[in-house]
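haha ok so turns out i had the wrong file open the whole time. this is the CORRECT one, sorry everyone. sequence first:
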Amino acid sequence: MGKNYVESAKLIDRQALYTPGEALDLAIKTAKAKFDETIELHVKLGVDPRHADQQVRGAVVLPNGTGKTVRVLVFAKGAKAQEALDAGADYVGAEEYLDKIQKENWFDFEVVVATPDMMGVVGRLGRVLGPKGLMPNPKSGTVTFDVAKALADIKAGKVEYRVDKTAIIHVPIGKKSFGNEKLAQNFKALMEAVVKAKPAAAKGQYIKSVSVSSTMGPGVKINPVKVLD
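then structure:
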Protein backbone atom coordinates (compact mmCIF):
# COMPACT_ATOMS: atom_id res chain seq x y z
CA MET A 1 0.00 0.00 0.00
CA GLY A 2 1.20 3.50 -0.78
CA LYS A 3 1.97 6.10 1.87
CA ASN A 4 -1.15 8.19 1.08
CA TYR A 5 -3.40 5.12 1.25
CA VAL A 6 -1.99 4.09 4.63
CA GLU A 7 -2.47 7.63 6.01
CA SER A 8 -6.00 7.80 4.61
CA ALA A 9 -6.95 4.42 6.07
CA LYS A 10 -6.16 5.77 9.58
CA LEU A 11 -9.08 8.21 9.24
CA ILE A 12 -11.59 5.39 8.81
CA ASP A 13 -13.00 3.06 11.45
CA ARG A 14 -13.12 -0.24 9.56
CA GLN A 15 -15.78 -1.62 11.90
CA ALA A 16 -18.11 1.40 11.65
CA LEU A 17 -21.15 1.81 9.42
CA TYR A 18 -21.40 5.48 8.49
CA THR A 19 -24.31 7.57 7.24
CA PRO A 20 -24.05 8.51 3.53
CA GLY A 21 -23.05 12.09 4.43
CA GLU A 22 -20.32 10.95 6.83
CA ALA A 23 -19.01 8.40 4.33
CA LEU A 24 -18.84 10.93 1.50
CA ASP A 25 -16.97 13.36 3.77
CA LEU A 26 -14.40 10.66 4.49
CA ALA A 27 -14.13 9.66 0.82
CA ILE A 28 -13.36 13.30 -0.03
CA LYS A 29 -10.81 13.63 2.82
CA THR A 30 -9.03 10.42 1.83
CA ALA A 31 -8.74 11.42 -1.86
CA LYS A 32 -5.13 12.62 -1.65
CA ALA A 33 -3.93 12.10 -5.21
CA LYS A 34 -2.77 15.10 -7.26
CA PHE A 35 -5.64 14.70 -9.75
CA ASP A 36 -9.39 15.18 -9.20
CA GLU A 37 -10.27 11.67 -8.04
CA THR A 38 -13.54 10.00 -8.98
CA ILE A 39 -15.81 8.99 -6.10
CA GLU A 40 -17.18 5.50 -6.69
CA LEU A 41 -20.17 3.72 -5.20
CA HIS A 42 -20.16 -0.05 -4.59
CA VAL A 43 -23.39 -1.88 -3.72
CA LYS A 44 -23.59 -5.58 -2.84
CA LEU A 45 -27.07 -6.96 -3.59
CA GLY A 46 -28.92 -10.00 -2.30
CA VAL A 47 -29.51 -11.42 -5.78
CA ASP A 48 -28.14 -14.36 -7.75
CA PRO A 49 -26.95 -12.88 -11.08
CA ARG A 50 -26.79 -16.37 -12.61
CA HIS A 51 -30.59 -16.23 -12.90
CA ALA A 52 -32.13 -14.04 -15.60
CA ASP A 53 -35.00 -13.02 -13.31
CA GLN A 54 -32.54 -11.65 -10.73
CA GLN A 55 -30.56 -9.38 -13.00
CA VAL A 56 -30.39 -5.76 -11.86
CA ARG A 57 -29.63 -3.32 -14.63
CA GLY A 58 -30.68 0.17 -15.60
CA ALA A 59 -29.60 3.74 -16.05
CA VAL A 60 -30.12 7.04 -14.25
CA VAL A 61 -29.24 10.63 -15.04
CA LEU A 62 -27.24 11.95 -12.09
CA PRO A 63 -28.46 15.42 -10.99
CA ASN A 64 -24.92 16.83 -11.07
CA GLY A 65 -23.42 14.68 -13.80
CA THR A 66 -20.25 12.62 -13.43
CA GLY A 67 -17.64 15.32 -14.03
CA LYS A 68 -16.37 13.29 -16.95
CA THR A 69 -16.59 14.02 -20.68
CA VAL A 70 -18.18 10.94 -22.26
CA ARG A 71 -17.39 9.93 -25.83
CA VAL A 72 -20.35 8.34 -27.59
CA LEU A 73 -20.42 6.08 -30.65
CA VAL A 74 -23.77 5.93 -32.45
CA PHE A 75 -24.71 3.23 -34.95
CA ALA A 76 -27.26 4.84 -37.27
CA LYS A 77 -27.92 5.60 -40.94
CA GLY A 78 -29.57 8.34 -42.99
CA ALA A 79 -31.61 10.94 -41.12
CA LYS A 80 -30.90 9.30 -37.75
CA ALA A 81 -27.15 9.53 -38.37
CA GLN A 82 -27.51 13.24 -39.04
CA GLU A 83 -29.69 13.61 -35.92
CA ALA A 84 -26.93 11.97 -33.88
CA LEU A 85 -24.29 14.31 -35.30
CA ASP A 86 -26.47 17.34 -34.61
CA ALA A 87 -27.02 16.12 -31.02
CA GLY A 88 -23.28 15.96 -30.32
CA ALA A 89 -22.31 12.34 -30.96
CA ASP A 90 -18.54 11.88 -31.16
CA TYR A 91 -18.67 9.11 -33.77
CA VAL A 92 -21.55 8.12 -36.08
CA GLY A 93 -21.63 5.35 -38.64
CA ALA A 94 -22.46 1.76 -39.42
CA GLU A 95 -20.41 -1.11 -40.89
CA GLU A 96 -17.20 0.96 -41.02
CA TYR A 97 -17.11 1.05 -37.20
CA LEU A 98 -17.82 -2.67 -37.05
CA ASP A 99 -14.60 -3.26 -39.00
CA LYS A 100 -12.66 -0.65 -37.00
CA ILE A 101 -13.56 -2.32 -33.70
CA GLN A 102 -13.06 -5.90 -34.90
CA LYS A 103 -9.90 -5.42 -36.96
CA GLU A 104 -8.17 -2.50 -35.25
CA ASN A 105 -9.28 -3.18 -31.66
CA TRP A 106 -10.53 0.43 -31.54
CA PHE A 107 -12.31 1.47 -28.33
CA ASP A 108 -12.03 5.28 -28.24
CA PHE A 109 -15.50 5.64 -26.67
CA GLU A 110 -17.32 5.01 -23.38
CA VAL A 111 -20.94 4.53 -24.54
CA VAL A 112 -22.56 2.95 -27.59
CA VAL A 113 -26.02 3.97 -28.83
CA ALA A 114 -27.81 2.22 -31.68
CA THR A 115 -31.08 2.62 -33.53
CA PRO A 116 -33.14 -0.63 -33.43
CA ASP A 117 -32.65 -1.24 -37.18
CA MET A 118 -28.86 -1.30 -36.63
CA MET A 119 -28.86 -4.00 -33.95
CA GLY A 120 -28.25 -6.67 -36.58
CA VAL A 121 -24.88 -5.02 -37.25
CA VAL A 122 -24.12 -4.23 -33.60
CA GLY A 123 -25.06 -7.78 -32.54
CA ARG A 124 -22.01 -9.05 -34.39
CA LEU A 125 -19.90 -7.13 -31.87
CA GLY A 126 -21.52 -8.81 -28.87
CA ARG A 127 -18.42 -10.81 -27.99
CA VAL A 128 -16.20 -7.74 -27.76
CA LEU A 129 -18.68 -5.12 -26.51
CA GLY A 130 -20.48 -7.39 -24.01
CA PRO A 131 -17.55 -8.14 -21.67
CA LYS A 132 -16.69 -4.41 -21.57
CA GLY A 133 -20.27 -3.46 -20.65
CA LEU A 134 -20.62 -1.47 -23.88
CA MET A 135 -23.40 -3.40 -25.61
CA PRO A 136 -26.44 -1.17 -26.32
CA ASN A 137 -29.53 -2.22 -24.39
CA PRO A 138 -33.17 -1.04 -24.51
CA LYS A 139 -33.36 -1.09 -20.68
CA SER A 140 -30.61 1.51 -20.42
CA GLY A 141 -32.07 3.62 -23.22
CA THR A 142 -29.17 3.01 -25.60
CA VAL A 143 -31.24 1.15 -28.22
CA THR A 144 -33.65 3.81 -29.47
CA PHE A 145 -34.81 5.81 -32.47
CA ASP A 146 -34.79 8.92 -30.26
CA VAL A 147 -31.02 9.31 -30.52
CA ALA A 148 -31.15 13.03 -29.69
CA LYS A 149 -32.70 12.35 -26.26
CA ALA A 150 -30.34 9.44 -25.60
CA LEU A 151 -27.34 11.65 -26.34
CA ALA A 152 -28.69 14.54 -24.26
CA ASP A 153 -29.11 12.22 -21.26
CA ILE A 154 -25.67 10.65 -21.66
CA LYS A 155 -23.90 14.00 -22.03
CA ALA A 156 -25.83 15.35 -19.01
CA GLY A 157 -24.48 12.61 -16.75
CA LYS A 158 -26.43 9.43 -17.38
CA VAL A 159 -24.76 6.37 -15.88
CA GLU A 160 -25.56 2.71 -16.32
CA TYR A 161 -25.56 0.30 -13.42
CA ARG A 162 -25.60 -3.50 -13.51
CA VAL A 163 -24.67 -6.32 -11.18
CA ASP A 164 -21.47 -8.18 -11.94
CA LYS A 165 -20.90 -11.92 -11.41
CA THR A 166 -20.45 -11.34 -7.67
CA ALA A 167 -23.76 -9.41 -7.37
CA ILE A 168 -21.98 -6.07 -6.88
CA ILE A 169 -22.75 -2.80 -8.66
CA HIS A 170 -19.81 -0.41 -9.23
CA VAL A 171 -20.72 3.11 -10.41
CA PRO A 172 -18.97 6.52 -10.43
CA ILE A 173 -21.05 9.24 -8.74
CA GLY A 174 -18.86 12.28 -9.39
CA LYS A 175 -15.53 13.87 -8.60
CA LYS A 176 -13.87 14.89 -5.34
CA SER A 177 -14.22 18.52 -6.41
CA PHE A 178 -18.03 18.23 -6.41
CA GLY A 179 -18.11 18.47 -2.62
CA ASN A 180 -20.42 16.64 -0.24
CA GLU A 181 -23.75 18.19 -1.27
CA LYS A 182 -23.54 17.39 -4.98
CA LEU A 183 -22.13 13.93 -4.35
CA ALA A 184 -24.93 13.24 -1.84
CA GLN A 185 -27.55 14.20 -4.45
CA ASN A 186 -25.97 11.87 -7.00
CA PHE A 187 -25.66 9.10 -4.40
CA LYS A 188 -29.35 9.36 -3.50
CA ALA A 189 -30.50 9.39 -7.14
CA LEU A 190 -28.51 6.24 -7.87
CA MET A 191 -29.58 4.38 -4.74
CA GLU A 192 -33.24 5.22 -5.38
CA ALA A 193 -32.91 3.76 -8.89
CA VAL A 194 -31.22 0.58 -7.59
CA VAL A 195 -33.87 0.07 -4.88
CA LYS A 196 -36.64 0.62 -7.43
CA ALA A 197 -35.03 -1.98 -9.73
CA LYS A 198 -35.33 -4.78 -7.15
CA PRO A 199 -36.34 -7.98 -8.99
CA ALA A 200 -39.52 -9.70 -7.82
CA ALA A 201 -37.54 -12.94 -7.58
CA ALA A 202 -35.05 -11.47 -5.06
CA LYS A 203 -35.64 -12.87 -1.57
CA GLY A 204 -34.33 -11.75 1.80
CA GLN A 205 -32.20 -8.66 2.34
CA TYR A 206 -31.81 -6.80 -0.96
CA ILE A 207 -29.17 -4.16 -0.08
CA LYS A 208 -26.46 -6.24 1.61
CA SER A 209 -23.67 -3.68 1.85
CA VAL A 210 -22.77 -0.25 0.52
CA SER A 211 -19.47 1.59 0.39
CA VAL A 212 -17.88 4.59 -1.30
CA SER A 213 -14.26 5.23 -2.17
CA SER A 214 -12.12 7.60 -4.14
CA THR A 215 -10.03 6.33 -7.08
CA MET A 216 -6.92 5.82 -4.95
CA GLY A 217 -8.46 5.75 -1.48
CA PRO A 218 -9.83 3.10 0.90
CA GLY A 219 -13.48 2.06 1.01
CA VAL A 220 -15.86 3.63 3.54
CA LYS A 221 -18.77 1.45 4.64
CA ILE A 222 -22.30 2.86 4.79
CA ASN A 223 -25.14 1.55 6.93
CA PRO A 224 -27.38 -0.15 4.29
CA VAL A 225 -30.47 0.72 6.34
CA LYS A 226 -29.74 4.44 5.98
CA VAL A 227 -28.91 4.70 2.27
CA LEU A 228 -32.07 6.69 1.46
CA ASP A 229 -32.09 8.88 4.59
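The longest helix spans residues 179-196.
again sry for the mixup
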